[in-house]
Each structure stands twice: as C-alpha cells, then as structure tokens.
Specification:
By secondary structure, the chain is α/β, with parallel strands linked by helices. The protein is built from 10 helices and 14 strands. It has a 7-stranded mixed sheet with strand order 6-5-4-7-10-13-14, sandwiched between helices. A 4-stranded mixed sheet has the order 11-8-9-12, covered by helices on one side. Strands 1-2-3 form a 3-stranded antiparallel sheet, covered by helices on one side. Helix 2 runs parallel beside helix 4 and helix 3 packs antiparallel against helix 4. It is globular, with a radius of gyration of 19 Å.
Length: 330
C-alpha cells in the first residue's frame, strides 16, 4: 500500500532529507537528497515537495538538516518560509520549530539538533494521526455506489500519511465500501492526473480521470454525489484557499445541490486571517501554462499569461469542514 510508503525522511547520518521528487511522477519514482535550506526551499518552490501538510513536515525536517550542516537558524528559517506564501502549514511548522529551539537552548542537558529532530518527527507523526482521524470521520459520509469528485492532490503524496481529501476515500475502501472516484486533471500542473490518479490506482481504488471542464457534465448526469477537497489555508470566517479550480467546482456543486466538503488539519486554519480576501495568493510563471509537461509549446510565443496557483472558495459554498476533531457543517 502506498500509505505505508515513506516519501520524506532523514538519511541515516541526519545530514540530508530524502524526498520523493513529485515533479517526475508518474513516469519516475526518484528520491532526491536535500542538504541545505536553499535546497529545501527550492524543492518546495518547484513543487518537488508539495501539499500543505507535507510542506510543513519537509520544512521542519529541512530546518534540522540545515542546522546539522552548520547553517544559522534564523537565516535557514527565513529562506525556507519564503518558498511559498499561501499554505499556512509552512509558517506554522517553522514557528513551532522556532519555539522548540528557544526552549531547547534554555536547557544544557540536551543537544539542540537531536531534540529538534525529535520535534520535526513529532510533527510528522502527529500529521499521520490527524490524517487517519480525518479519514475515519469523513468515511462515514461515503455510501456504496457513490461517485466522489476530488480536485488536485490531497492524498498521501501531500501529507505524512493517508492524506486529507483522500483520507475518507481510503478509509471507506478499507471498510469494504464500493464507490467510484472521479479525479479532476487539475491544470496547469496536472496534479490530479499525475498524482491523485497515480496513488489511487496504485491502491486499487476505482478511479476515473476527467478533464477539469468535464465536472459540470458529470454532475448534470447525476454521477457525482459528493466532493472532497483539501485546503492550504482556511480563514477565520471559513473562506478556503485551495488549488486553482476549486472555486469553480464549489460553484457547480452548489448549483447541482451536491455536498462539498473541505478536509484538512486544524493547523491549516488561520484565525489571524479574517476572510479569504486576506489570503495571499501565489502567482507562478506562465511557462506552466504554455509548455510545462508537454513536448512542444501549446501556445504562441509572447502571449500573456495569468497563473495563480490557488483560488478562494467562500464559506457559503462549503457544506462542511472535516478535521481531526470531526465534521463541522455550515
């Protein structure tokens, strides 16, 4: 089972972080070693490591590697935290590591690096437990014969274990229920096609890949009974930032009367952010739209591009939130 596959771990000497390079999937399963804060930041920025919870885990573990290799704590933290602005788990994990570092320095009985590694691994272990609980709560919503739509990748490849949006799917499958998952391809980087379809089929989940613009047609044909998506940041009022295209799916689900659930750990909820309007949306290079993942350019040279990585779904379009504490319905 992929859910037992460790895709982010320390090397034996603790001087490197080994991660699965997700930009190469599904063609290659190749691990790379990150030995500096610059390498960790690059891996996060280039989406070699991606998914809000996994970004936080890799950041915490990468900070340990940077310190082990002689880097300054503050400089290493600054470099890693600047890699991506939208997912709150990145700053949350690094702030937790900073608090742990301050406490460790007050004690002369511990080696800071060793204790920091323990803290980073604790973050990873806690995330695995959180994902499991999200799965157990969310799976109660899935009945035999349902069609489940998901967008982007919020599975094992995005977290420390089961995933967030895919956790209920895995839990329901393990309970013996039979249903079908429809995975949006998720342009422009195709995380649904390259990652979600990859891990679900690897785990023998009945999966159908669709283009992003096919969701409305499927809903009109009554083939979609429920939508599960992940989240990169949830504002205090419930507005949610997730992969670009999530808003369109939420609008469609509202129109067709289909339950739309956001799945994520409490660490993705940012009470300092009042509404979705306060969430910083990362904008990425236009080459992701015009040529990335294709053998030849798909658009004419010189065309203008607009490539926000996320959009914000207003809370009134969300049926409920599934966290490690249960299902909170709007």
């Amino acid at each position: 089972m992929m859910n037992d596959w460790d895709i982010c771990f320390f090397t034996d000497d603790g001087r490197a972080l080994r991660v699965l390079d997700q930009t190469l999937l599904p063609e290659q399963e190749r691990f790379i070693e990150l030995r500096s804060s610059e390498a960790v930041a690059e891996a996060i920025s280039r989406l070699r490591v991606r998914g809000a919870p996994l970004i936080g885990i890799a950041a915490a573990m990468g900070l340990c590697v940077a310190l082990t290799n002689g880097e300054d704590f503050d400089e290493a933290k600054r470099r890693i935290v600047s890699a991506r602005p939208t997912a709150v788990n990145l700053s949350w994990a690094l702030n937790r590591m900073e608090a742990a570092y301050s406490e460790i320095k007050k004690s002369s009985s511990h080696t800071p690096i060793e204790k920091l590694r323990e803290e980073a691994l604790l973050i990873k272990q806690e995330d695995a437990k959180t994902c499991y609980r999200i799965g157990q709560f969310g799976s109660q919503l899935i009945k035999d014969g349902m069609g489940i739509l998901t967008h982007c990748n919020a599975g094992h490849l995005a977290t420390g274990h089961y995933g967030t949006a895919l956790a209920p799917i895995y839990a329901a499958a393990e309970a013996g229920r039979r249903f079908r998952v429809y995975a949006d391809e998720t342009r422009p980087l195709l995380q649904g096609a390259r990652l979600t379809a990859y891990e679900l089929t690897r785990n023998n989940i009945d999966t159908t890949l669709i283009c992003d613009n096919m969701a409305a047609s499927l809903m009109a044909q009554h083939k979609i009974d429920m939508v599960f998506v992940g989240c990169d940041r949830v504002a205090a009022n419930g507005d949610t930032a997730n992969k670009i295209g999530t808003l369109a799916v939420a609008v469609l689900a509202k129109h067709f009367g289909i339950p739309f659930y956001v799945c994520g750990p409490l660490s993705s909820f940012d009470n300092q952010c009042k509404t979705g309007a306060d969430i910083v949306i990362e904008e990425r290079g236009g080459e992701e739209i015009t040529s990335l993942h294709y053998l030849k350019p798909m658009a004419p040279s010189g065309v203008h591009t607009f490539n926000p990585s996320f959009d914000v779904t207003p809370h009134e379009l969300i049926t409920g939130y599934i966290t490690e504490q249960g299902i909170n319905k709007n």
